[in-house]
Design goal:
Layout lengths: L5 H4 L3 H14 L10 H32 L12 H31 L15 H11 L17 H49 L5 H47 L1
Amino acid sequence: MTEMTSTELNPFPENQNIQATTEISNHPLSPKGRFGRLSYLAWMFIIGMIYTCVLGIAVVLGLLAVYMSPERSFSALFSSAMGISAVVLAVFSVIATIVASICITIRRLHDLDKSGWLCLIFFIPLIGAIFGLYIMAAKGTDGENKFGLKRPTEQTEKVIGSLNLVLIVLYLLVMIPAMISYQQIISQMSQMPTEEQMMMSEGEPEMTDEQLAAYLEQIGSEEDSELAEDAELAVVESSAEEDDAAIAAAEASIEN
């Protein structure tokens, strides 16, 4: 019996490679392939929840390490096993979240038929936030583009993505008015001293040189009178002390 070669066992090896590539592209955390809007929102929500849970565990471990240390200082984060574990877990969660978010964003850009390098725009202040809203709202290209076929959105992704979209809308509806109100309060507080100074300057006319001299003379006379009263009080107190001393001496002589 002759042995069969791999080509004879699989007469279409190129189909196997295509299937393997497709499986890799369909992996959520792979930068290859495409992601629709709801798929993108769903996996961003999932990654955010995982990051929050892992970071919460790291924070709890760090607080326990600080509380259980004799000096109860943050130096325990780098001197105890629990503290080091908390720091490593926190750093790992941050790095893993950044990498996963970049991969998902690249797939979303592919769905828009754009290069994944555009995700670097997120590092630009303000422009990155506007670009993020564009990625969430823009519709992907229909059919096939240069990054492959359109990936169908799973039912679970539709539910989670819709939930994340509702949360984002509610967040914007709450935060935008709050930020506007905060800016108005800050501007009003910064203008209040200026308005008070204007009112004081309008309500009180400027003093002439003669009025200023008379005012200073009045203050000086008041200070002199206060000093005189203090001196008289000191004399009275000293005389009272002398009288008390004389009375005490007389009583002592009588007793003797």
